[in-house]
Amino acid sequence: MKLTSLIDKYSQLRLPIAKIEKHDNVTELYPPQAEAIKAGALDGKNLVLSVPTASGKTLVAELVALNHILSKRGKAVYIVPLRALASEKYEDFKTKYSDLCKIGISTGDFDSSGANLGNFDLLLLTIEKMDSLMRHQADWIKEISLVILDEIHLLDSVNRGPALEIVATQLKDLGAQILALSATIENSDELARWLNAKLVESSFRPIKLSRGVYLKGEIDFKEKEDYKLNNPSVKIDSSVLLATDIVNSKAQALVFANTRKGAESEAEKTAEHIYKILDTKEKKELFQISKKILSVLDSPTRQCQRLADCVKNGVAFHHAGLHSKQRHLIEKNFKENLIKVICATPTLAAGVNLPAKRVVIRDYKRFNTFGSEPIPVLEIHQMFGRAGRPKYDTEGEAVLIAKSDSEFNQLWDVYIEGRPEEITSKLGVEPILRMHILGIISQMQKTKNELYEFFEKTFYAFQYRDLSGLETIIDRILDQLFDWKFIDNSKDNRFKCTKLGLRVAQLYLDPLTAHTLIGLLNRESVDDLVLLTILSDTAEMRPLLSVRSSEELGIYEQFEKYDLEDEQIRAFKNAMIFFDWMDEKPDDFIFDRYNMPPGTMRSKLDIADWLLYSLAEIALILSREKLVPKVNLLRKRLKYGVKRELLPLIRIRDIGRVRARRLFNAGIKGIEDVRKAKPEVLEKLVGVKIAKKLIENLEIKSERAKIGLEKYSE
Hints:
By secondary structure, the protein is of the alpha/beta class. It is built from 31 helices and 19 strands.
């Protein structure tokens, strides 16, 4: 089906189609895309589109959203599981459609009412942000008439599935059109019935996918002739051989390992071989990129140095432990074909769009609570889906690695011939339900039976039918929330949020965490380290690093000085990391001492800031402001990673904690000292460029203050 053929019936799509043709070079719809149109996607029909990765789901969503908005039917929300995905789609949509409709994005700050978001026609939101906005009861939510649920198969995820299920259930009640985008799953028909939607299911891929298993120097492919590597060395790991082989043919590779450590070691081993293939121009450009990788942090860690060394050789590792700026540099330069191989953890398969000619799956097992277990077929197939670059490749290759004939047969039967598992609801877990029940009551008073009726509309109820077990859990949670004074019972037996309970729901906290915070507020006094330990012991901060044998002596020696429970030792370690950060210890020190990488560190700091903010907000509700000054001071110190004495300096633009310490040690302790300092002194302490910026900015502020336009305040 020609893309332009849609204009006859949907004339409002003339301009969007012209932009798609120009920006994406697309003129023809793929078969599943055409099927989605025929099924009524552009006519307001609910639809589940279940097709492999890179088969054009996003284009269908774009057409449906633009048709909806330009037909003036209402507001559209596009809900994705990850912030990185939201940002990627937002940038793409803004580039193409910013002159046709107002496009917005919101992925953080769960304590924002979102009133300003009502000005947008199309909103990119994470699952949790959508849930948070509904708790704040933004007026514009009633105007939503199209809901696009990306990666709907993540209903099966323990982490994100329950929030996605609650959000989808609530949005169904709005009567909005639902467009659910899914990977190929075994029970997509069940999912479609739950959403009262038509199902378009296909195995079509625009780029042919050849799947195979590697053993003893040869890849046995299902979809094409087998392939023998040229003189494979038994001394080189199979995964390295497979990556090097494809780079030799002027293509790229993604290698998936089951742990961060595995991805890093894999990259280092591969880098030795890829460097020999690079040309002189590529080596020079990669050297410059490696310098940027190192300059992201004031004090690069050993991990940063290892990454930079790999990048110099045309290889990178990629996982959540990296700083976000480093991940962005890797992704950008892989897309530009400078970095030839990325060795990553499986989370990359569900993240940003980074396809490669060959995908190598080094590990098909991973460790969990019960030991080593095979990775689900659905996840392996998600990794397969990254094989083949649109516009560049005519086919992609996805290769598993076997170490024996018996393992070869097992991998072939399970992952090549096997079907993905059915997805199942993960809603029936008490800690998860506790948070969402309070969230539901915060939006509208409910009787117990009305709560039961809401959960009867969920995917959990659709799958399991018998809700007696769930109702028992709901009853227990209601008793808990009542005991904690988060809900109250009105005269007509409706549960409603108390002022405290409403604030807890809006803060997007687990009620148990809020109950713990209230316990802190009831104390006469609390040591900073104990406070941060208790915050670190909440559900929001998990998972926590274990205490390594090399750390035990130092950590336990400090731990015994405080009145804490034995099971809080990991939380205490996390609090010690925060303290070292506030003591201005550099990233490399924290990484070496605690094995906490910079990316993980920033994530934990964000969570700590949110919990401290929530603690202060709850204190205001309960009129227990005694702890608030301490909390606000901790927030500032954690944000900047400084001792208290540097706070007046750290707020000055372009002054980070390293420069602030240099200035302070030179006797420059505040804004007035900076203003009075000689230019040559500032240049010596912070560099010529920064000194010039400081002088210019302070002169502007001083001039504005003189004419009464602005009063400077630290």
